[in-house]
Design goal:
The protein is α+β, with helices and mostly antiparallel strands. 53% of the residues lie in helices and 18% in strands. Helix 1 runs antiparallel to helix 3, helix 1 runs antiparallel to helix 5 and helix 4 packs antiparallel against helix 5. Keywords: Membrane, Transmembrane, Transmembrane helix.
Length: 220
Protein backbone atom coordinates (compact mmCIF):
# COMPACT_ATOMS: atom_id res chain seq x y z
CA UNK A 1 0.00 0.00 0.00
CA UNK A 2 1.19 3.53 -0.77
CA UNK A 3 2.59 5.06 2.41
CA UNK A 4 1.04 8.46 1.61
CA UNK A 5 -2.45 7.02 1.18
CA UNK A 6 -2.01 4.86 4.26
CA UNK A 7 -1.07 7.82 6.47
CA UNK A 8 -4.03 9.89 5.26
CA UNK A 9 -6.50 7.00 5.62
CA UNK A 10 -5.22 5.90 9.03
CA UNK A 11 -5.22 9.49 10.31
CA UNK A 12 -8.81 10.01 9.19
CA UNK A 13 -9.89 6.78 10.87
CA UNK A 14 -8.02 7.69 14.05
CA UNK A 15 -9.68 11.10 14.33
CA UNK A 16 -13.09 9.64 13.47
CA UNK A 17 -12.62 6.97 16.14
CA UNK A 18 -11.71 9.55 18.78
CA UNK A 19 -14.70 11.78 17.97
CA UNK A 20 -17.06 8.81 17.83
CA UNK A 21 -15.77 7.46 21.14
CA UNK A 22 -16.30 10.65 23.11
CA UNK A 23 -19.60 11.23 21.30
CA UNK A 24 -20.72 7.77 22.39
CA UNK A 25 -19.95 8.62 26.01
CA UNK A 26 -21.90 11.91 25.74
CA UNK A 27 -24.37 13.03 28.38
CA UNK A 28 -24.53 12.70 31.30
CA UNK A 29 -20.85 11.72 31.57
CA UNK A 30 -19.49 14.39 29.21
CA UNK A 31 -21.78 17.34 29.73
CA UNK A 32 -20.49 19.30 26.74
CA UNK A 33 -21.53 16.57 24.31
CA UNK A 34 -25.25 16.38 23.54
CA UNK A 35 -27.16 15.58 20.37
CA UNK A 36 -30.20 17.84 20.69
CA UNK A 37 -30.86 20.77 23.01
CA UNK A 38 -33.77 23.11 23.67
CA UNK A 39 -33.49 26.57 25.23
CA UNK A 40 -36.53 28.29 26.69
CA UNK A 41 -37.00 32.05 26.89
CA UNK A 42 -40.10 31.21 28.92
CA UNK A 43 -39.06 28.71 31.63
CA UNK A 44 -40.87 25.39 31.92
CA UNK A 45 -41.21 23.11 34.93
CA UNK A 46 -39.42 20.04 36.20
CA UNK A 47 -40.98 19.06 39.50
CA UNK A 48 -40.79 22.18 41.66
CA UNK A 49 -37.96 23.75 39.62
CA UNK A 50 -38.09 25.93 36.51
CA UNK A 51 -35.95 25.00 33.55
CA UNK A 52 -34.34 27.16 30.90
CA UNK A 53 -32.59 24.43 28.89
CA UNK A 54 -32.72 20.69 28.22
CA UNK A 55 -29.93 18.69 26.58
CA UNK A 56 -30.25 15.12 25.36
CA UNK A 57 -27.41 12.58 25.22
CA UNK A 58 -27.28 8.85 24.60
CA UNK A 59 -27.43 7.75 28.21
CA UNK A 60 -29.54 10.47 29.78
CA UNK A 61 -30.67 14.11 29.75
CA UNK A 62 -29.35 17.19 31.50
CA UNK A 63 -31.62 19.97 32.76
CA UNK A 64 -30.50 23.56 33.37
CA UNK A 65 -32.35 26.06 35.55
CA UNK A 66 -32.53 29.83 35.19
CA UNK A 67 -29.23 30.20 37.07
CA UNK A 68 -27.45 27.71 34.75
CA UNK A 69 -27.31 25.05 37.46
CA UNK A 70 -27.15 21.62 35.89
CA UNK A 71 -28.92 18.40 36.90
CA UNK A 72 -28.10 15.28 34.87
CA UNK A 73 -29.60 11.78 34.98
CA UNK A 74 -27.86 8.56 33.97
CA UNK A 75 -30.93 6.55 33.03
CA UNK A 76 -29.62 4.57 30.05
CA UNK A 77 -30.72 4.80 26.45
CA UNK A 78 -34.39 4.94 25.51
CA UNK A 79 -35.53 7.40 28.19
CA UNK A 80 -38.64 9.65 27.98
CA UNK A 81 -38.39 13.43 28.35
CA UNK A 82 -41.39 15.24 29.89
CA UNK A 83 -42.01 18.91 29.09
CA UNK A 84 -44.34 20.63 31.58
CA UNK A 85 -45.49 24.24 31.43
CA UNK A 86 -46.46 26.43 34.38
CA UNK A 87 -50.08 26.13 33.27
CA UNK A 88 -50.02 22.36 33.64
CA UNK A 89 -49.69 21.40 29.98
CA UNK A 90 -47.41 18.41 29.44
CA UNK A 91 -45.76 17.04 26.33
CA UNK A 92 -43.64 13.89 26.41
CA UNK A 93 -40.85 12.88 24.06
CA UNK A 94 -41.17 9.11 24.28
CA UNK A 95 -38.26 6.76 24.84
CA UNK A 96 -38.53 5.40 21.29
CA UNK A 97 -37.06 8.66 19.98
CA UNK A 98 -34.00 8.61 22.25
CA UNK A 99 -33.47 4.84 21.98
CA UNK A 100 -32.08 5.20 18.48
CA UNK A 101 -29.11 7.19 19.79
CA UNK A 102 -27.58 3.84 20.83
CA UNK A 103 -26.55 3.41 17.18
CA UNK A 104 -23.62 5.75 17.83
CA UNK A 105 -21.65 3.28 20.04
CA UNK A 106 -22.19 0.62 17.35
CA UNK A 107 -20.61 2.94 14.80
CA UNK A 108 -17.70 3.48 17.19
CA UNK A 109 -17.06 -0.26 17.35
CA UNK A 110 -17.07 -0.63 13.55
CA UNK A 111 -14.72 2.34 13.12
CA UNK A 112 -12.37 0.75 15.66
CA UNK A 113 -12.35 -2.46 13.61
CA UNK A 114 -11.57 -0.52 10.41
CA UNK A 115 -8.79 1.34 12.21
CA UNK A 116 -7.29 -1.91 13.47
CA UNK A 117 -7.30 -3.59 10.07
CA UNK A 118 -5.66 -0.51 8.53
CA UNK A 119 -2.53 -1.46 10.51
CA UNK A 120 -2.76 -5.22 10.02
CA UNK A 121 0.01 -6.83 7.96
CA UNK A 122 -1.75 -9.67 6.13
CA UNK A 123 -2.66 -9.23 2.47
CA UNK A 124 -6.43 -8.82 2.71
CA UNK A 125 -6.31 -6.38 5.67
CA UNK A 126 -6.59 -3.20 3.53
CA UNK A 127 -9.66 -4.58 1.75
CA UNK A 128 -11.29 -5.45 5.08
CA UNK A 129 -10.46 -1.96 6.36
CA UNK A 130 -12.14 -0.42 3.28
CA UNK A 131 -15.25 -2.57 3.70
CA UNK A 132 -15.59 -1.85 7.42
CA UNK A 133 -15.03 1.86 6.77
CA UNK A 134 -17.90 1.82 4.27
CA UNK A 135 -20.03 -0.11 6.77
CA UNK A 136 -19.28 2.44 9.50
CA UNK A 137 -20.24 5.22 7.07
CA UNK A 138 -23.61 3.54 6.49
CA UNK A 139 -24.18 3.17 10.24
CA UNK A 140 -23.19 6.81 10.80
CA UNK A 141 -25.63 7.83 8.07
CA UNK A 142 -28.38 5.98 9.92
CA UNK A 143 -27.31 7.61 13.20
CA UNK A 144 -27.33 11.00 11.47
CA UNK A 145 -30.91 10.40 10.32
CA UNK A 146 -31.93 9.32 13.84
CA UNK A 147 -30.44 12.51 15.29
CA UNK A 148 -32.40 14.61 12.80
CA UNK A 149 -35.60 12.70 13.62
CA UNK A 150 -35.06 13.37 17.35
CA UNK A 151 -34.46 17.04 16.60
CA UNK A 152 -37.68 17.19 14.57
CA UNK A 153 -39.68 15.50 17.34
CA UNK A 154 -38.32 17.81 20.03
CA UNK A 155 -38.97 20.83 17.81
CA UNK A 156 -42.54 19.62 17.35
CA UNK A 157 -43.13 19.03 21.06
CA UNK A 158 -41.66 22.39 22.07
CA UNK A 159 -43.86 24.04 19.46
CA UNK A 160 -46.90 22.39 21.04
CA UNK A 161 -46.29 24.10 24.39
CA UNK A 162 -48.68 27.04 24.68
CA UNK A 163 -47.21 30.31 25.88
CA UNK A 164 -43.65 28.96 25.82
CA UNK A 165 -40.93 30.41 23.64
CA UNK A 166 -38.33 27.79 22.92
CA UNK A 167 -35.51 27.25 20.46
CA UNK A 168 -34.31 23.77 19.48
CA UNK A 169 -30.78 23.22 18.15
CA UNK A 170 -28.40 20.42 17.33
CA UNK A 171 -25.81 19.70 20.00
CA UNK A 172 -22.04 19.33 19.70
CA UNK A 173 -22.14 15.53 19.34
CA UNK A 174 -24.46 15.84 16.34
CA UNK A 175 -21.80 17.83 14.45
CA UNK A 176 -19.20 15.28 15.51
CA UNK A 177 -21.29 12.66 13.71
CA UNK A 178 -21.20 14.67 10.49
CA UNK A 179 -17.41 15.05 10.71
CA UNK A 180 -17.01 11.32 11.45
CA UNK A 181 -19.07 10.44 8.37
CA UNK A 182 -16.87 12.56 6.13
CA UNK A 183 -13.66 11.22 7.68
CA UNK A 184 -14.52 7.51 7.31
CA UNK A 185 -15.50 8.05 3.68
CA UNK A 186 -12.20 9.81 2.99
CA UNK A 187 -10.38 7.01 4.83
CA UNK A 188 -12.10 4.33 2.75
CA UNK A 189 -11.10 6.10 -0.48
CA UNK A 190 -7.50 6.61 0.67
CA UNK A 191 -7.03 3.00 1.79
CA UNK A 192 -8.60 1.74 -1.45
CA UNK A 193 -6.38 3.98 -3.58
CA UNK A 194 -3.35 2.91 -1.57
CA UNK A 195 -4.20 -0.73 -2.15
CA UNK A 196 -4.62 -0.14 -5.88
CA UNK A 197 -1.32 1.72 -6.03
CA UNK A 198 0.38 -1.14 -4.21
CA UNK A 199 -1.15 -3.73 -6.55
CA UNK A 200 -0.05 -1.74 -9.61
CA UNK A 201 3.56 -1.53 -8.46
CA UNK A 202 3.64 -5.24 -7.68
CA UNK A 203 2.17 -6.09 -11.10
CA UNK A 204 5.26 -4.77 -12.92
CA UNK A 205 8.30 -5.88 -10.92
CA UNK A 206 10.52 -5.92 -14.03
CA UNK A 207 10.46 -2.13 -14.16
CA UNK A 208 11.52 -1.64 -10.54
CA UNK A 209 13.81 -4.59 -9.87
CA UNK A 210 17.12 -3.64 -8.24
CA UNK A 211 18.93 -5.89 -10.78
CA UNK A 212 17.61 -3.91 -13.70
CA UNK A 213 14.76 -6.22 -14.65
CA UNK A 214 13.83 -6.86 -18.25
CA UNK A 215 15.59 -3.85 -19.79
CA UNK A 216 18.94 -4.81 -18.29
CA UNK A 217 19.23 -7.50 -20.94
CA UNK A 218 19.68 -4.86 -23.61
CA UNK A 219 22.47 -2.97 -21.84
CA UNK A 220 25.99 -3.45 -23.11
Amino acid sequence: MSRKHFLIGASCLGVALFLSLIGSISLPHLTALDYVRAKFATPILSGQDTLSEIRLGIWGPCFYDEHDHRLCFNVGHGYPVPLLTTTGQIEIISGSWTRGLAVHPVATGVIAIAFGFAFAKFESAPLISVLTSVLSALILLIAFAIDIALYAEMHHKVGELHGVKGNVDFGTAFWFTLVELILVLVAAVMVFMGRRAGDSSESYPMFSSPSGGFFSRFKK
